[in-house]
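Table S2 (text version). Query chain:
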Amino acid sequence: MTFSLKKLGPGLLFAGAAIGVSHLVQSTRAGADFGYGFLWALILINIIKYPFFEFGSRYAAITGKSLLDGYQSLHKGVLIFYIILSFATMFTIQTAVTIVTASLANQLFGFELSLNLWSTIITIFCAAILLIGQYKVLDRIIKVIVITLTLTTIYAVIVAFFKSSTPIDFKQVLPESTTDIAFLIAFMGWMPAPLDISIWQSLWTVEKQKEVNVTEVKNVLFDFNIGYITTIILAICFLSLGALVMFNTDEIFSSSGIVFSKQLITLYTKNLGNNFTIIIAIAAFTTMFSTTLTTLDASPRAMAKATSLLTNSKKNNFFLFWSLILVLGTLIILNFFTSEMQLLIKTATILSFLTAPFYAIVNHILIFKLELTPEQKPSKFLKILSIAGILGLLFFSLWYLRSLII
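Corresponding structure-token output:
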């Protein structure tokens, strides 16, 4: 199989969108609070969600269309329900990633600006990039960011491992309190990413096919798997950093965005040394910047496509319309949640997890209703894993809801 870096794209965009709050914030916090106790949850949720993300790439490669086209083909009501869910979560998700990015920008650049002002600058800057350069610019930027982040993070973990004098305990933890269960669901909600990113993945794959003729299923899935494996490796790395440096210490992460970003930079430099402060700050900032950029592209792109399908219109201004709506909504919410980053992230991640069964069920139905060739057809193992994944997502959602009642 011949494959070039030029043909890679949607898989790395997936990594760029996924490797953000779920990794920098949630995974690091899980390691700091529970050591390696939630490693089982990290691995399990990546396995459970894999088929449904994979189906986004597979469907786009086979049909040349996005999952949203498939949603409409199932029933108009499915598409409408997606629009409602997306509208309910898109502003919270964008606000959460923007706050973290702004906090890191404040640490990196050192200007005496408020978190609100940093968030506004970043949001407008990302919107300008996307409206001017669109997919091509996004595709090129993300490759550099993901490669830089991967190398830097793996190096940080290796150094932390050799510097740590505390024996590593891999005893796994099953939470019992409502607070710990809520954190676990939040942790799994965005690990490696919300399931609606499967729709983004299908849209990016269709867009990539316009630029580079990559239509073979095996090539498209190879690209996706590179991105997916990268997100898993880095999730384990960030959990390890929290476990190796902060677990069983008196230090806890703050819910304040600015304080948390200071702690995060310190977490790295404690292991690599002060000479690496600027490198780590840049790596952390670019990680969150890539997430902010990709989510600001994907949510309006998905809503624009859904609106176009729902209204049976081929107008091209829907993307601009939804981009403006998302930017304005994000800036409005930022005025109320800048001091409560932890609450905002927990709300967004739990909402993402509770809506995951919907995307899992619809993606499963959609891919298996197609008439497929042997090359296009998912393996029997993947089909079994998909069914098990749906049951797993439903179980954890009901477990969380039950914990709220008891």
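Notes on Table S2: The radius of gyration is 20 Å. Residues 54 and 245 are 34 Å apart (CA to CA).
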